[in-house]
Amino acid sequence: MQNKGLIKFFAILFALVSIYQLSFTFVSSKIKNDAKSFAAGNSEKEVKYLDSIGKEKVFNLGFTSFTFDEVKDKQINKGLDLEGGINVILQISVKDVLKGLSNNSKNPIFNKSLADATANQKGNQTYVDAFFEAFEANSKGSVKLASPDIFANRTMQGEGGIDFQMTDAQAQKVIKRKVDESVDSAFGVLRKRIDKFGVTQPNIQKLGETGRILVELPGAKDVDRIKKLLQSTAQLEFWETYKIDEIGNFLVAANEALKKTEINKVETKVAVKDSISALLTNGKDSSATKKGNNPLFDKIIQQGGGPVLGMFSPKDTAVVGGYLRRADIKILLTPEQHYARFVWGKPTILKDAQGKEIDAVELYALKGNRDNVASMGGGVITDAKDTFDQLGKPAVSMQMNGQGAKQWEELTGRAYTQKSNIAIVLDNIVYSAPGVTSGPISGGRSEISGSFDISETKDLANVLRAGKLPAAADIIQSEVVGPSLGQEAIDNGTNSALLGLLIVSLWMMVYYGKAGWYANVALAVNLLFLFGILASLGAVLTLPGIAGIVLTMGTAVDANIIIYERAKEELRSGKSLDEAVKASYSWTGAMRSIVDANVTHILTGGVLFIFGSGPIKGFATTLLIGIVTSLFTSIFIARIFIDWSISKNNRLSFITGFSKNFFTNFHFDFLGIKKWTYAFSAIVTVISIFSIVTNGFDQGVDFVGGRTFQVRFEKPVEVEAVKADLSKVFEGSAEVKIFGNDNQLKITTKYKVQEHGSEADEEVNKLMYENLKKYYSDGLTYNKFVNAYDGKKYGIVLASKVGPTIAEDIKTNAYWAVIGAMLIVGLYLVISFRKWQYSLGAIAAVVHDVIFVLGIYSLFYKVMPFGMEIDQHFIAAILTVIGYSMNDTVIVFDRVREFLGDKTKAKGDFNSIVNQSVNSTMSRTINTSLTMILVLLIMFIFGGESIRGFIFAMLIGIVVGTYSSLFIATPVLCDTMSEEEHKIIEKEHNA
Fold first, then answer.
1. Which PANTHER family would you find in this protein's record (predicted)?
2. Could you say which of 433, 468, 503 is where a domain stops?
3. How far apart are CA 380 and CA 399, in angstroms?
4. Domain containing 869 — which CATH number?
């Protein structure tokens, strides 16, 4: 081997750099473990501990030292499936951005185009492009985007804006830029909020030009609180309010009008004698106040006063709001009250007559106007901080700029004169509505008080300081993983990786003897390099990523196997050990096959990296890095030891007593049974396609949208009973199945999946808790059931949500990933082999393998004891299968090409020559497949329930891929070559 000294130098240097990079991970892990011990389960205390030592020197190498913050930045980061925490994808409402840019245009074509874009947006199509497409179809040239009543308005004119003369194509470029600026603004606002939230190593990034923003909060535990923090637009407004005595007559009239249409629908409930019912009955007990007679008043659970019109149950807010928005009810308002806005307050807790706590929401009436504009906007706020009010309760104080201070003084002066109240409204929720008792307030200071706890005021101040979002931010995909589940994933992944390493190493020693030891050393160095690169790149290690590492161990020895098998052939042909090794490492020996096989693997891994997301991207990352490091260590590191052994005159035969006769006299007629293999594969393909068409798949929420919960119970529960309980409240949408142990269920529902607000998520969580708490002993509160915390054993340990729009994108990406991988690899094979028949044979084998795996999943998903969902993990498995199948086929085809092109290799007819070439690859094929199957079996058994279906798909794919390389790809290659070419080859070989 030339340049051996240089290779040794780089290998040692690379090893030292890898150890250096990994040292930061070890130091960081130790410090984090110390923080956990110090905090004793208190996550807030743990974060404060780590923050307090952020600038302290914690790692001293003698020549330099590092603070904890620096160490933390250089460690291998764990994904949420290992660390625990919250991962969300936020969709900035581009529709709202476009409305704002158009100054809320009333143009019918514009508004119809917005609606059409929402309804017809295709997978992976941006909303802006969908809008442009809809606008062109609706306007048909009659209206331009640059019309004065659409985008050529006062706010969009000027330098870099839109003028009346612009064509639609020119206006589109400006609009796209303005939308991007709005998304950038939202990104900045969210980053400010997250930076102040208090989690270690938060991650936030824009996802292309989709208007989507990924937010990862490792270690975060308070689910509802975080979702509110992320989704709040921070639209702060100050409104004057009506008092109950001003609006009471309307409510009385509304109640009377509702009796005519709603009297038979109203729930029976005892009427509350409050200020409104007093107006109705003049303080007397009459039949009018009997339960069931008052559609509106019967829903009041406590009287109001001042600006509060009454207290209602949260479950009644939608009904009451619907009443008050009805045209026949709104007409009952006096002309002065025509623009009144009825708004709900912040949820609070009351006590009923028996002292039991009940949820309640206050109803307010704001003094609206024709333009629906608040008396004062929140853009004047320059600072906000959490504090305490005069009664010692948590509150938020705000400071305004000069313009705001002047407006505030005028507004409070008017409220003082009129003895009215000012509602402080954030995101259409009234947080407080104080009166003004001491005259106009100067200086621009104000305060929000109410029923807050300290964490709420911290979050509220944080949101106000960061500023408002330019449009609504909806959570279209989320995943919440408890820390205990993450630790289980680490344990499962580590155990399976160690066991896989042990078995692969033992097999190499048993089969190849001393050469197997050298391959194992190369494998160990490979793992060191792999982790070193992951650390230096700041990559995120996920559970599928660990699966990728385990898979890498199976493929890492493949190059060694190819080289060793070639060396054995050269030794059997009479060459010396030194000559055999040189021949096996040459381009005409094993190198060409190794390069072709690994290029196909890299191409499919690259497709997976481009189209994958989250954990799947982590899998692709480790797979791609592992392929590169495996090639280096297999070709160069093992070679260094082999050359050293030869120089010491050590006996190196690449066999052991156990393996010396394996496949030496193997002569199987692969082409002779092609009619049977064609028939078998055709039958399986037909059955698979029939099942796919009629039986379908168990499509995961990744592809169809929905919510998934992994819930643990104290003891086994009856699946059908849980399904019946949840189906009632989730409107029939509840799928329940045992997930792993019989005390753990996987619950899937589409209930309110299209509603992205934090209120919908919280409602689903509360419905889950209320209907499942009977299966737990007393003491499991809502917070303990929903939120994550260290040592959590029961309740929701994992929750995920995928909205229908992103599900469509994921499905589209999956489709193109599979098709694209096959086309790219097929094109490479045409270039590499220079004959289309090779590419056709490989593609035929791959299509066969994909259909086979899909058929297995379609046929058996209802009966298997583990999940067989078609989701992103499954697509990753399919792409891995494509890569492996191509890899295996290329190895066979390389040998077929060699035998067909070398007249000295074989004699006989065409089929005999091809059979001899395929038989010569059997030792490599069986060895590689066996090591792969062994490591996948270990991962299947010990890797954990969450990736069992993913591993099973790869297991089936490896077995089928091995079969198709031998019995489908090769026969197709031979059958598509002309009979004339067969005769030419036979003549040359037998001359």
1. PROTEIN TRANSLOCASE SUBUNIT SECD, PROTEIN-EXPORT MEMBRANE PROTEIN SEC
2. 468
3. 8
4. 1.20.1640.10
Q: Are 534 and 659 in the same domain? A: yes
Task: Give the pLDDT score at 271.
Answer: 41
Reduced to 3 states, what is the DSSP secondary structure of residue 443? coil
Burial per residue of 660-697, b for 16 or more beta-carbon CB atoms within 10 angstroms, e otherwise: eebbeeeeeebbeebeebeeebeebeeebeebbeeeeb
Residue range 281-298: average pLDDT? 60
The pairing of beta strand 65-67 with beta strand 57-60? antiparallel
CATH number of the domain that 349 lies in?
3.30.1360.200
Residues 875 and 905 in one domain: yes
**Structural domains in the chain (count):** 5
Query: Where does a domain end: 19, 47, 75?
Result: 75
Residues 497 and 416 in one domain: no
Backbone angles phi, psi at 152, to 5 degrees: -90, 50
Distance CA 211, CA 93 (A): 8
Token pair listed for 737 = 């199945």
Q: Is 349 exposed, middle or buried (0-12, 13-18, 19+ CB in 10 A)?
A: exposed
Nearest to 734 by CA among 713, 716, 750, 719: 750
827 and 853 share a domain? yes
Between 284-288, 309-313, 749-753, 975-979, the lowest mean confidence (pLDDT) is in 284-288
Q: Are 559 and 630 in contact (CB under 8 A)?
A: yes
Three-state DSSP state, 912: helix
**Burial class (CB within 10 angstroms; exposed 0-12, middle 13-18, buried 19+) of 225:** middle
Give, in order, the Cα–Cα distances in Å from 327 to each of 242, 338, 344, 428.
20, 11, 19, 21
Tell me, yes or no, whether 605 and 567 share the same domain.
yes
Q: Which two tokens stand for residue 514?
A: 């001393």
With CA atoms as reference, report the closest residue to 324 among 363, 275, 369, 367.
363
Query: Does 367 map to a domain?
Result: yes
Task: Specify which residues 350 forms β-bridges with.
Answer: 358
Q: Which amino acid is at 503?
A: I
> Which residues are CB-contacts of 902 (< 8 A; sequence separation ≥ 6)?
none
What does the pLDDT look like over 446-497, one tens digit per residue? 887 767 778 778 877 877 777 777 777 887 777 777 766 667 777 777 888 8
Q: What is the mean pLDDT of the chain?
A: 82
Asked whether the predicted pLDDT for residue 162 surpasses 60, the reply is: yes
Indicate whether 147 and 105 sit together in one domain. yes
**In-domain check, residue 812:** yes
Over residues 781-825, the pLDDT tens digits come to: 888 888 777 677 888 888 888 877 677 777 777 777 778 777 887
State the pLDDT confidence band at 253, using cuts at 50, 70 and 90: very high
Q: By residue range, what is the domain housing residue 726?
A: 706-802
Alpha-carbon distances of 688 from 848, 849, 850, 854, rounded to whole Å: 10, 11, 10, 7
Size of the chain, expressed as the number of residues it contains: 991
Burial 1-15 (b: 16+ CB within 10 A, else e): eeeeeebeeebeebe
